[in-house]
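pinging the channel bc i need a second pair of eyes. not urgent but kinda urgent?? the chain im working w is below, pasted from the shared doc
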Amino acid sequence: MPEAPLTLPVLIRTIRSARTQAEERELVQRESAKIRGAFRGDEPDTRASNLAKLLYIHILGYPAHFGQMESLKLMASHRFHEKRIGYLGAALLLDEKQDTHLLLTNSIKNDLLHPTAWVQGLALSTLGSLGSVAMFRDLAGEVEQLARVGQPSVRRKAVVCAVHVVRKVPDLIDVFTRLGEHLLTEQNTGILHGAVMLISEMCERSPQALDRFCKFVPQLVGLLRNLVVAGYSPEHSISGISNPFLQVQILRLLRILGKDNEDASDAMNDSLAQVATNTETTRNVGNAILYETVLTIMGVRSTSGLRVLAINILGRFLLNKDRNIRYVALTSLQKLLQEENSAVQRHRATVLECLADPDPTVKRRALQLSLALVSGSNVRTTTKELLVFLETCAPELKSDCASGIFLAAEKFAPSKRWHIDTILQVLTMAGSYVRDDAVPNLIHLIGGAKELHGYAVQQLYKALTQDISQQPLVQVATWCIGEYGNLLLDGSCEEVEPTQVDPEEMVSMLERVLQSHLSLPGTRAYALTALMKLGTRLQGSDINRIRSLVSIYCSCHDVELQQRAVEYNALFRKYDHLRASVLEKMPLVDKTGYAEEGSEKEQNGREAAVAPQILEVAPVPSDVQQQDSGQVSDLLDLLGGPADPPLAQPTTPAVESFLDFLGDLKAPASAIARMIVYEQDGLLVEFSMDRPPLEPTLLLITATVSNRTPHDVAGFCLQVAVPKSFQVELLAPSGSTVPGQGGPPITQLIRVLNPKKLPLRMRLRLAYTLPSGALVQQIKEINSFPEAAWK
């Protein structure tokens, strides 16, 4: 005797009682087979119950596609409970990709014309969620007719369905324009709410509809005023606020109608002020209305007093205990900073207090806004607070904080000494998290402040004796010791009480840096050069000690250090008479084009990395070089091209003599027009290109990645491939997270060697993670480089 089929309640209990996944899978397969057999036998009495069980199985994630046709059959049934199950099955099992979807139109049309309101409601709900373009074009007239006349429940669903029609097929806006005008006089709040949504969608998608509905601004303002002053209504009030959902929708529509419209904005100013001052903020409902009011005030051409009121509302949000409200306020203030800087500056103290928030997302937003609020008038106090935050913040925030302080100090420093002290504090607290250009920028700053040489070398030497783990700090300190070590030996300093350092102690400190396992190859290169420069100011046993230290690295595994040591050793053995003149103090190297680049920063609202060309150029850490080289090698054969032998990777300036460590003193590069290479998902990737005149085959490309969305984009990775006749080197980026709108962009340097001066072709592979969590990978081929980049 065959086993009887299970009812839906029994099936649910049985599946829930399954102890293992295998037992559940066996039960589902057995029941699915019974359902499939019943469908084949065309048993109309059990079709609805079998489809209900199949839908439950589908919700659990098991295949249920064989129930599509049964859903269509039940939709055509004359029994309401069967029709309801059929519509539910269609909503769950069908979409526009299914061929069966085309059969829905006739059934839905028949039910739209059905005399029963329940059946019409089923058809409207399904049409709104499943309707295709063709289906909407066929049934738009019926939807418009049901929205005009009929029972309120059907009209409300018809208006919501019309909203979906307008979103999917903007060409049908003309069908619903008169309907929107008619529904604005509706007394039923549900239908009125849908009408405001419908008008908003039409105005966003059609300039003609926008012009047409601008004349209804006084009517909308009257509706909003009535809602604000209305008393308590048990049907529509939430937390003592009358119909907050309708208020929010009206505010959104007013924002659309008042954008770039002076007359409409003037008509709504008084009502917006009334909403902003009379809405209670003790509950989240009131905060939602106030937030929409702020967006509307800032989105239309409102008066200056009203805009200040909106900023003050956001300032009150910062004091709210709800972290979500504080996050929304910080994000909104950052967007409004450019337009209302003075009003936002009044809340700077409250923003800085948010840096102590335990929520990491609120803390990150507060940091971004605090950095954006730095100006010439508050740079000292704000930077002091940021330095306190930098000392205790999480590691993932140290990089952004350090970079922001660097940019603020460079732009608003009141004096060179304050600038140097600030950068030294950052290097001491977060040296491992600073940008790649921090070291050369600080060296150039110290070199240009002749009156502060003694003070800088004293402070750096003191910091070096306390900690040698912060590599950028060690690099700057060793460079200064090499250049201005005589000031330490003489103990000359006018800024602070001078400390005279013994020559042997100074050499021991540099030896400690060379032998430390924490030192990177670039740091050891700085230390070797510092020893050589000190050798011109010392005598006797100290010279022999320096010579022995240098000779140790003549057999170093690191090629850069080995070459440097061999050349320095040659200075001792063969060219000792030239050693003093070769190792003289570095002259101040001017940042060519610095002023022009600074003006471009202000115009673009971004800070570009300007690396001074000086004697010591710290190489990229070896682990980063290996990682980037491995990534690029995976792309080398993507473009193909002639099978020319690859050229040697340029790691040092091309100067043939043993004095090639001076080759970094190059002439300024010629600028080439900036080009946009990628623009998608709110990300903008731009290439700015330079060709050094002394190396015509070398092209330096600075990739700048900025974010136009309010949310951060994490995990950004850029890889580059070129044909085999070229050679490419991809340096480490300034970061992997692209901050949201208003934050600093990330930069990455690309070196392309083109010995044959062929037209440049390049393929990019971009990978990043959207705020929604979706991983995006794109490949972009560029063939439109200007001739100036390669010819």
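so The first helix runs from residue 8 to 16. and The two ends are 87 Å apart (CA to CA). — does that match what u expected or am i reading it wrong
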